[in-house]
Amino acid sequence: MKIRYSLLVAVLLSATVLGWAWLRYHRFADAPLAGIHEGESLVVARGDNLFKVLDKLQAQGIAPGDRLLWQLLAKDTDAAGKIQTGEYALTPQTSPRSLLLAMRNGKVVRRMFTIVEGWTMRDLRAALRKVPLLEQKIAEVDDAALMEALGQKGQPAEGRFLPETYAWTRGESDLDILWRAYAAMDRELDAAWADREDNLPLKNRTEALILASIIEKETGVADERPQIAGVFLRRLRMGMRLQTDPTVIYGMGSRYAGNLRRADLEADTPFNTYTRAGLPPTPIAMPGKAALRAAVHPAPGDALYFVAVGDGSGRHVFSATLGGHNTAVRDYVQRQRAQRDAARTGAAPQ
């Protein structure tokens, strides 16, 4: 009887200890880690193992707890030896289990960078320089060296990066984003050119890109893009000069102070479409998908001129004759004058 009693006591003790250990393990696995503040993250570098990760947590003021339990949990979650590099979000609710699963599955923090339609290369570079935590590789290289780094030696950089939102992760660089944006533009341009209308006065897809960049800078009104494309393509077909202000402004570079003068329109540069026939030598901005489509699918019609309405809508008046265009220009000038007068007097413009 004494032996049976002793065995029973031993079994009960073992069960109690195992139960306590099981409870402790599961409380550890699913309890929030102490010391995490909202907005924190953990960066796992190449070669970091579980113990290095725990050291990093501790260095950030986060109490990781028992390392043996971490090892057991890593085996239980199949995370042992499978921790992926990257940045991982930490919240006050993050538990050892959720963190190990995130690191096993590579659920890294994905940040976003947007290239805006109509940006120039100068705008794009300036925006990339301002992105926190993004490694800077292109700041000290010119556009020619940048394109060579992308495997496109001799190709102009302007217009070659598709306006879109791109995801990036900690440890990536501005060059990584530009590589994705270049590849995206290459695909979109190939698709647009393959789907172009017949008999366009464009020699190749580069000319389509150049025209699309001009369309992008001329209007932000979606339904006007094909109309503006039609005007420019008719002019190209007839041998008329494009006479578009955005190309002149681009050619002026830093000399442009916000206002075009007659002398600027008469000063010859490779981008002055008032003094030179045909398209400028390179794009003048980053065109979006809609502008690319418009360049190869112009709206039908006979308009050869357009001018802004001037009412703040961003829309234009299209004319088939110079006389009609001159009338539209006079209306625009009168509307602008009325708005300036109203601003001075405080009255509503008529």
Description:
This protein is mainly α and 350 residues long. The chain is 48% helix and 7% strand. The chain has 3 domains: 25-105, 2-Layer Sandwich (Dna Ligase, domain 1), CATH 3.30.1490; 111-189, no CATH class; 197-345, no CATH class. It has helices spanning 2-30, 50-59, 67-76, 96-105, 121-129, 143-149, 174-194, 205-218, 225-238, 245-252, 262-266, 289-296, 322-345, and strands spanning 41-44, 86-89, 111-114, 165-168, 305-308, 316-319. The strands form 3 sheets. It has a two-stranded antiparallel sheet with strand order 1-2. The model has no long low-confidence stretch (mean pLDDT 90).
Summed up, what is this model?
This protein is mainly alpha-helical and 350 residues long. The chain contains 13 helices and six strands. Helix 8 packs across helix 9 (225-238) and helix 9 packs across helix 12.
Anisotropy-based shape: elongated
Strand adjacency order, main sheet = 1-2
Name the average pLDDT: 90
Q: Tell me the Rg in angstroms.
A: 32 Å
Largest sheet: 2 strands, antiparallel
- Give the count of structural domains: 3
SS-derived structural category: mainly alpha
**Unreliable stretches, pLDDT < 50, 5 or more residues?**
none
Order of helices and strands: HEHHEHEHHEHHHHHHEEH
Q: Let me know the number of strands.
A: 6
Distance between the termini: 110 Å
The amount of helix comes to 40-55%
Number of helices: 13
Strand content: 5-15%
